[in-house]
């Protein structure tokens, strides 16, 4: 969980109904459409092979349009013979969603169109109908958990300091399309208002877990909840409950105010597209402590020293870190870059 | 004179952060115990209720994460089903067909090909169907390879499928999966004591119950929930209120959720105060209770599991600071209806013994310590029981709703009135726990009644450092 400039990879899974996708090797920018497709309605099953009197395995040979193609009502899908021709035509406007093993065709009406946008400036490394993987250089910040769909926009500082909570009153439609930096904490109201105002995403140190469940549903857990639907995007950097961003994390965010950025929800990463020398980041990751009986996180920025075993009120004896306001179990202090899974 | 001490295996046991080593070697380990790779499993089942239950039993046995279960009885279209399968991203699909009629399952397999057929190499499709049906299903699966498995309705067939799924989780041939070690430990205990044995393992990411009979029969259920990284899944599946009800002080659901979520993303976090410790205990209770409910839904024999003669706690459940905390959690979660001997493993010792037992024989006597004889009684009116230990005989009256501990010294014998019989045990860390709270164990709804009740039960066996009901 610390800033790094370097090569990053972002995988973009595609929904059902892909029509086109960027080929491997194509350069892309964050926000570019790298795949597009259609969403299907209730399909109609067409008995193609049986009506034509061919074996299911031979259906491909007599089809006039390939699987996945879009057809209008009445269009010939498959046809056999010359003088005594037999044909199968489309009963509705739609796409040939699926050719079944028994030779039937699932023809589905097109309800809507979808697009998938790149979350990185870079090059398409691999692509097929299931996934497009983009690789590129960027400033990257590994967060704790991502919620909602991927998001792209310019960074906008919405707080004045690393301890501040994102106030809903500071959010308005002028921030449409931006990624808001929400400081130490953002509540459900802030996330919801940001979404209502057209804000692309909110990034903050911590968030109340109950608020997450209000916004993203009861399925939202501590490990994130990725969706493709029209939902807010939130990137949690440190933990749940209350918290404060370490200066080492907040200062680069403030310095990158206005830069183009993207959030890749599945990996909980913020990518910022700025030159390598845009910010200075320290070589040593700050330490983060879990406090208040697991109810809050806080950066350890005062004097701290390892001590021997301490017996805590829970009667657990464990190595401790001594700070100004008493001992903390050493296990409850982690480097910001340490794995949290 | 040269004395041979025999060969002793060195075993590494993986935990949330790092691992612990048991054995003489310092350069490496002979065996490694780990959770393996998470396996996302989709279930495609025909209409028969037994198929659904047996497929779930396989998933529980293999510690697979069921990401989607589709039945042929649903009215969803092939598009809806394919979308659900694509979004679920399964690593393996278990398809169970009715005898002689695979038409419904063909529809589900067609949806699987539509949804996931563009990444066929990343999916294993295991099909339980007769030969002719399997040929039809294979044709529908297209590029997805079909692997034949026996129908999972019998115990032996289930074991074979579980072994196949575990091979997908194992990743490395040297790794002994934690659930395998627990099952081997349960078998070893049952064989050594000639009594039915239940090993309850609650760890950071998983919860397991392995019930073994002296003849080698085994029923095991495992789930990807726990009191560490799996803590948020306990709340998601059991509900926050079920966890909150066990906390012996007023705490609102949002404050509890923050703590659960932080614990889930903080490997090996130590509870500093009694509240966090009580939360760990609550999560452990609900983890076990949830796995029991899942076992019941899968058609497994719950009564046998609950009423095993011997119960051994392992993992984090065995490492609470007070032995009474392990006992209280096990008693509350299991809600036995008989008398059983409750033990806990010494630090990782039973897991290590179980791992060795998967390859050869392993002594388990030194791996566990006996905590208590737990007796569940349901007196219609006040009754009495007798405990005989090294200090003499103690007769105690038992009223309905009572829950208390009779500390013992040395070997202990419990005599119950009527035909309930006598039960003996060696030295016990706690003594005899008498549970007359009734079954199912019900907690008052209102905090004003619930909190004193929980505090009273904790105080009865000195499970928490609480005074007068306040933490």
Count of helical stretches of chain A: 5
Strand % of chain B is 15-25%
β-strand percent of chain A reads 35-45%
User: Mind describing the biggest β-sheet of chain B?
Assistant: 8 strands, mixed
The dominant shape of chain A is elongated
What coarse outline of chain B follows from CA principal-axis ratios? globular
Brief overview, please?
By secondary structure, chain A is mainly beta.
Annotation keywords:
heterodimer; A: 341 residues; mainly beta; 11-stranded mixed β-sheet; 4-stranded antiparallel β-sheet; 10% helix; B: 471 residues; alpha/beta; disordered N terminus
What does this structure look like?
The complex is a heterodimer of chains A (341) and B (471). Chain A is mostly beta strands and 341 residues long. Chain A is 10% helix and 43% strand. Chain A has helices at 48-52, 59-62, 188-196, 209-216, 247-255; strands at residues 3-13, 18-21, 27-28, 33-40, 44-46, 70-71, 76-80, 86-89, 94-99, 105-108, 110-117, 122-127, 131-142, 145-147, 151-157, 165-166, 178-181, 185-186, 201-207, 234-240, 260-264, 269-273, 287-291, 296-300, 305-311, 317-323, 326-329, 333-335. Chain A is elongated, with a radius of gyration of 26 Å. In chain A, 48% of the residues are buried. The mean pLDDT of chain A is 95. Chain B is of the alpha/beta class. Chain B has helices spanning 49-61, 78-88, 103-116, 131-141, 155-170, 178-193, 231-238, 240-244, 253-264, 274-297, 302-306, 323-334, 349-357, 447-460; strands at 11-14, 19-22, 31-34, 40-45, 65-71, 92-96, 124-128, 146-148, 175-177, 197-202, 207-212, 218-223, 310-315, 339-345, 368-376, 383-389, 392-398, 403-407, 412-415, 422-425, 431-435. In chain B, β16 (383-389) and β17 form a beta hairpin. In chain B, α3 packs parallel to α4, α6 (178-193) packs across α13 (349-357) and α10 packs parallel to α12. The longest helix of chain B is centred in the middle third of the chain and has 24 residues, at 274-297. The termini of chain B are far apart. The model of chain B is unreliable at 1-5 (pLDDT under 50). The chains are: A mainly beta (341), B alpha/beta (471). Chains A and B meet through α4 of A and α2, α3, α4, α7 and α9 of B.
